[in-house]
Amino acid sequence: MSAEEKLLALLGQRYSVGPKYLAPPGPNVAQWAQAAALALRAPDHGGLRPFRFVVVGDAERPDLAALFAAGAQQRGQAPDEIERARARAYNGPGLAALVARVRDDVPDVPPHEQWLCVGAALMNFMNALHLMGFGAKALSGASVSDPAVHTAFCGPGEQLANWVIAGRPTRAAHPKAGTAASPALSNWQAPQA
Ligand SMILES: Cc1cc2nc3c(=O)[nH]c(=O)nc-3n(C[C@H](O)[C@H](O)[C@H](O)COP(=O)(O)O)c2cc1C
Description:
The protein has helices at about 5-10, 30-40, 60-75, 80-90, 110-130, 145-155, and strands at about 20-25, 50-55, 95-100, 135-140, 160-170. With about 190 residues, the chain is of the alpha+beta class. The protein has one domain: 3-Layer(aba) Sandwich (NADH Oxidase). Strands 1, 2, 3, 4 and 5 form a five-stranded antiparallel sheet that branches. Bound molecules: flavin mononucleotide.
């Protein structure tokens, strides 16, 4: 198998790995930086770079946990749900936030094109982690729309798109059960008059 074929085969084996199956260590500073550099290869109409990644280090997890717990309390959740929200801040040995900055004032680049760029950046970021041997998963949930979490991560015009957790997979990654492959490619034919 050529190096290119091996790489293609490896990319075809990227599946999400949930928090239960991720062990330390998470990516180090250089590995996060390399993944973010690959994310910059996402197609970006107008060069707006509508995304950035923010790594949450181990030392910052307790502060994030406090934010998650306060948010759950604000939403009127029960004590056990508040504790589950707090625990989510410790999900994944490595944790990064994907922050999107999608503008609605760029005539040639409507928001949906910018979101495509954000999604492509996420994919390249996760593929880079996968090629480095990490398991990873994109997660959202109530925390991404929590006002205090928003303030803690986002500047003007930004929004928290999702979290990315990453670590060493403790079991082989596999497709999600029950997901049948549906064709993602066809040939266009002109509509019959
Ligand atoms: C922006 C975004 C947010 C997501 N949030 C969640 C989530 O909160 N919980 C979850 O189980 N899956 C979530 N997913 C889906 C998983 O990350 C994953 O893509 C899905 O389980 C399919 O697995 P696969 O990546 O192996 O195909 C999210 C995906 C994206 C792109």
